[in-house]
Amino acid sequence: MESIGVLLMCPMYSYLEQELQSRFNLFKLWQQPPSKITEFLKSNQRTIKAVVSNARVGVDAQLIDSLPNLEIVASFSVGFDKIDLKRCEEKGIRVTNTPDVLTDDVADLGIALILAVLRKICPCDGFVRSGKWKDGDFGLSTKFSSKPVGIVGLGRIGSAIAKRAQAFGCSISYHSRTQKPLKPYKYYDNIVDLAKNCSILVVACSLTDETRHIVNREVIDALGPRGILINVGRGAHVDEPELVSALLEGRLAGAGLDVYEDEPEVPEPLLRLDNVVLLPHVGSDTVETCNAMADLVLANLEAHFNSRPLPTPVI
Amino acid sequence: MASPAAAAAAEENLPQVLILLNPPAFTIFGEEYFTSSKFRFLKSYESSLPLDEFLSANGRPMRALLATAATIVGAGVLELLPDLRLIVTTSAGLDQLDLAECRRRGIRIASAGDIYSADVADCAVGLLIDVLRKISASNRYVKNGFWASKGDYPLGSKLRGKRIGIVGLGRIGLQVAKRLQQGFGCTVSYNSRKKKNPDQVPYPFYQDVQELAANSDALILCCGLTEQTRHVVDKEVLAALGKAGVIVNVARGAVVDEKEMVRCLVEGEIAGAGLDVFEDEPVVPKELLELDNVVLSPHSAVLTRESMMELARLVVGNLEAFFSNEPLLSEYEDD
Predict the structure, then answer these.
(1) Considering the entire predicted model, what is its pTM?
(2) Which keywords, in A-to-Z order, does the entry hold (chain A) (predicted)?
(3) Among residues A297, A308, B101, B192, which one has the fewest Cβ atoms lying within 10 Å of its Cβ?
(4) The complex's ipTM?
(5) Within 10 Å of residue A67's Cβ, how many Cβ atoms?
(6) Residues from chain A contacting residue B280 (CB–CB below 8 Å)
(7) Are residues B84 and B151 in the same domain?
């Protein structure tokens, strides 16, 4: 196996890197100066048979075309929106992701963001740290339990968020490509109606051409000045400038974001808002889950190079 | 429209409700939500007289008292209120009242009942997830501009599967248990004054808090403060909880040996803490202000708009019902 070239797109997780290093001939793309990348790929194109990517750095047609012996792209993520699936399919390249193992952590983070925004956990913590508590009480926050929650995308993660919110006595409604008859929640066939009928809107769907900017001005207006938006999907799900102006103008009560259109860049005006909680794309960032994701990436690579069925193929 | 004089006279005829300490809800939410055309408040703290003199002068006709969590009502105060027949509290707990003396004197009690339990449980869960997933700390990180310059934030710890030890399985503890076990897939155990009926409460019971801690990844304190629970989380319990353990306190600061807990946090003897209460509020040990693995909250677990609205409804409703000889909304029944 040590002769199989694997290209790692960016620093991801030290355990994964170490295992890839010990099992394969590992190439670290970020260690090449940008001007030398083409040369680097050309000199190693015969050896590289696998690419490991993640949510932030994908695999486009140009890269695929520069690696003629590429057989498999294993993503250290569940989302594969940054991988050119069409090109991979044309060339018979397998693509794998890491579903299920991160579902709980991402769903937990969705609820964490709801609580942090509604109950003002972050500004309260700042209030105490700054010593202001000595001069008076913080003021009132907003209750979470029993509030209506609207979920965009009722896949694994959306369903897990629904289950958690139910334990808080919340009513659940959702919008999805198709209705899920086995799920006991109210379905809306359009996202505007969903937004009108909830006070907490959570984005948990996959990013496709149809869902790009699915949360736009109209949806934000429907959610309204007492509504909050939570995004644990992809930054591109939300029209970010529209979200920023809605928050600045008080047309939305608050937002909890784990993802952004251009990570790690975060719209500057959001940095000063106390009613916004900003996380650095940590949805699956626990030791336990990163280990499980890494093991799944390794399992997919091992299976492929040993001609066994892939555990979690996308194609 | 009544003339000012007529209005004042009508007001004079309203029954009075005595208040001994300013309710925080009046300041934080608004006294206007607690007013009624059926009664008026008499505030002893607005008088320059010391309390016993004030009560000697004014206590005779008082039939109703609005008490806060901090309003200690013992035999001495009750002696000066011979006609008192109702105490309405803004608190869920009643340990500030001498219940035996109230019973003896035929004084009925209406508490805030269960109105706060969901909010306190939500706060406990919010603090726990924040500590495990570093929500407040990484929010600070992003807002300081460090994500672009310093890179990714250190990893957190997964919540699902964690063993949760709840100290005090009352109304609040039960709601915390439900959220964490049914919602998040944690495994809940508990310690309480008495073991609960296993048919109704499916969680394993530990007689001893230290043993509970030894078998938990996180301890969530939801008990009332009594002689038995004062400093129940002590050096031994914290040691049993261990280096990976997390403590969440939405009970009372004095349930924990705060000095010892701070030492454990500073020296890495426990992994983190989410605290809404402290031994000497609003004083918070300064060591905690420097730590990224603690989340601090200014005793605000009940302070939501919704809880305050519900409290106002209950307080006014109970007082109006009393003065109209109707059943109270939330009468406390001895069990």
Answers:
(1) 0.95
(2) NAD, NADP, Oxidoreductase
(3) A308
(4) 0.96
(5) 24
(6) none
(7) no
